TrEMBL record:
Domain Aminoglycoside phosphotransferase: 178-431
Entry's family note: Belongs to the TsaE family.
One of the GO BP terms on file: tRNA threonylcarbamoyladenosine modification
Cellular compartments annotated: Cytoplasm
Keywords: ATP-binding, Cytoplasm, Magnesium, Metal-binding, Nucleotide-binding, tRNA processing
Originating species: Dichotomicrobium thermohalophilum
SUPFAM superfamilies (UniProt xref): P-loop containing nucleoside triphosphate hydrolases, Protein kinase-like (PK-like)
Protein name, UniProt field: tRNA threonylcarbamoyladenosine biosynthesis protein TsaE
Record flagged with keyword Acyltransferase: no
Gene Ontology cellular-component annotations: cytoplasm
Amino acid sequence: MQPETPDRTAQIRLPGLTLAMLDGLARVLAPYLRKGDVVTLSGDLGAGKTTFARFLIAAIAGEDVEVTSPTFSLVQSYETPRVEIHHFDLYRLEGPEELPELGFDEAREDGLLLVEWPQRLGDALPPNRLDVALSESAEADQRDVTVTGFGGWAPRLERFRAATDFQKNAGWSAASSRFLAGDASVRSYVRLQLGEKAALLMDWEPQPDGPPLANGLPYSRIAHLAEDVGPFIAVSGALREAGVPVPEIYAQDTERGFLLIEDFGDYILGKLVERSGEIGTLYRPAVDLLLRLRRTPVPRELPISDGWTHRLPDYDKRALHAEAALLLDWFLPAMTGTDVDQAARGEFAALWEAQFDWLATRETGLVLRDYHSPNLIALMPGDPRGPLGVIDFQDAVIGHPAYDLVSLLQDARLTVPPDVESQLFNHYCRQAEQDGVFDADGFARAYALLGAQRNTKILGIFARLALRDGKTAYLAHLPRVRAYLERDLQHPALAPLRAWYARHMPGRVDAQAIARAGAGR
């Protein structure tokens, strides 16, 4: 929910817009709208409110949608893959007391609201809203438009203006815009098309992830998660030098947090596997990329720009502990209905401490951390860079190379059968042995240890996304992640941890229990 700060406003004035320019404004604005938003459309009869609403609905739902004026029905709703749109025309509304009959509050909770004649709302006018006011211009076929962000929409409108300024300065102001579904982070993406050229606008306002935890530090700082675009720029350069295909950066604004980057397209590895079922064949090049990284030393200090550098942090015990503790803080309380007691917490931390002490004595290298199917994209045939491109690498650290391998072969979004996992794991180990000294037993233990730690973290993160952020789609993956965790805990070196999980973890993952807990917050 947006904070209610009704006194704050931001405004953009756009005089003399033609019909085509109104359509363009709707297309640029559409990617920034989301569930729960209220967009009010103000102006006299014939000002163009319904026309702009049609443009906005088409920009979100697609060109083929049939938009009907709600003049007589007072509301028309549109299901879209991204958000449900509710278009209200309140001209014939007698008063705010009629709003419950229209389902106004329910629509606001589960969708995006476009409201013509918002003055009819009276005291029910939401303090957090975006208002688009249209009026006649000097030319009969033009309109003067004033866009105003009220309350929580004020900083969002300021951010929108900064993004469009960046896009203009990069030479892409004439590009068409389309929302691109992002990940579980604070980043957002807009797909731009300019003739035959395509690019992604990454909007990443510098900020930490979550409130302060230990020693006044947020989770992102403890777990060494990137908080701005600098690490993305730095790590992309290092990967490019190592021969790993990553998006080119066309333009950047490190201070405000905008990047214009190469668009690798939609051939995401996970989707290709779902269509073909050829998981072993499709994952093999991804394993080979990890072998390439293993063979290529990467400096710890990486350049960003203008003398600024990014130092790759160690994937240290503090970060590993903080990630594992997400199970205790979010997943288990939601599953059991009670907090984990201090004795169980202490034993959990001590058992992991012993494992992390052993891990600290092993080999290290560059670890990308989110190396799995959603972040691997098939490039066009014949691309000289190779068959796969890599994205979402800004959280890279120095750690054990088994982490990225288990991240790939125990994919949280896609079930990797045990036999396929074993085949690809053995392929990696055989190639690593040919390269020189390789401790196969130690690597296998690190693989199981880091798989258990990662899957423990993911159970906590997916629960947190549902409970804190209202993102419940990730709950569908919990049974798969739990199964991976059970697989990892079978390693003999993890027997003490296996016993702790057997005592404290519910026998079955109940995603609905977490969803219900989130709904009650």
